[in-house]
Amino acid sequence: MKKLKSLKTTTKVDFATYLGVIAAFFIVSLLRSQGLLNRSLTGMLVPICCYIVMAVSLNLTVGILGELSLGHAGFMSVGAFSGIIVAMSLQSAMPVAWVRLLAALIAGALFAALAGLIVGVPVLRLRGDYLAIVTLAFGEIIKELINCLLVGYDENGLHMAFNISGTLTIDDLHMSPGAVTIIKGAQGATGTEKLATFGAGFLLVMVTLVVVLNLVRSRAGRAVMAIRDNRIAAESIGVNVTKYKLIAFITSAALAGASGALFGLNYSSLVASKFDFNTSILVLVYVVLGGLGNIWGSIIAAAVLYILPEALRQFSDYRMLVYAIVLILVMLATNNPTLKNFLGRFKPRKQQGKEAV
Fold first, then answer.
1. pLDDT tens column, 139-157
2. pLDDT at residue 356, rounded to an integer
3. pTM for the whole thing?
4. 8-state DSSP, 276
5. Contact (CB, 8 A) for 280 and 73
6. Cβ-based neighbours of 284, under 8 Å, separated by 6 or more
7. What Å distances lie between residue 204 and 149, 191, 254, CA to CA?
8. Sign for the pseudo-dihedral over CA of 18, 19, 25, 26
9. Calpha distance 100→106 (Å, rounded)
10. Bridge partners (DSSP) listed for residue 154
11. DSSP code string of 277-317
């Protein structure tokens, strides 16, 4: 009976999360249709969706699994450039834009999941700072590999080369006249058709929420949280630690890859340096300020903190200073016992009783 009541409570919370995101989408769409959003904010809608997906997916690793990852931008870059390659190379085979966008998102998720598997098998045996350092190194390695990548497409298919020596050019791919150049090494992807839309971003956010929330509520999710709380105790009762860590890590990487594909197809040109260490730290800031394990917090923090620097643009040179002060104030507020007690009053009485126990 207690399990049934607990299930109903979590179902209501998840349902409220879905409804909140849907309501936000319709409100923003209404404001945009009425011309109440300026051009700058309209252009930020797709990136906001991408960073919401990034924050929620990283929260799965950092908040739910309890492992610190500093290479999340690496998975985003894998998804971005693999999605661009798929979308550009399928222009003639799939003339419908939304079909190519869907194919690009799936490809981005699959390639990022593969990268997550390759990295996760050896890396997840590490803990703490060692895990953070290795994931950081992964993000930097991916960035350098993409800087060496040359990709083009003609009637004979894809042509690829790694410009490790720094002496190769796009002409060394020996493509036929009229071929499409997709990636030019350090210059990144240029001439990309912009397929991303706000509607696609909203759907990706909803898919991410469904995947993450259902995983957390499942048996695998409970095993992941047991590992986070006490690895030794979980292992002693037969929980396969490596298996469940990989499930969470690969799922997080796949969602980051889909986000990257959508992000990459929102711009006509994109360079690998966009997905550097600073991007990983930025997403980690969204997760920490939103609350570890708090999905709603990740959504709100990603949306607000992405818009904030643009909203502070009128302060010119002082806007990043104001941004830093806001981050510090939010951090102090979220760790304030008085505020926590105040917010705790709005929780269901049964949940408060459990926390007191």
1. 889 998 999 889 988 888 8
2. 40
3. 0.87
4. S
5. yes
6. 58, 62, 70, 72
7. 28, 24, 12
8. positive
9. 10
10. 157
11. HHHHHHHHHHHHHH-TT-HHHHHHHHHHHHHHHHHTGGGGG
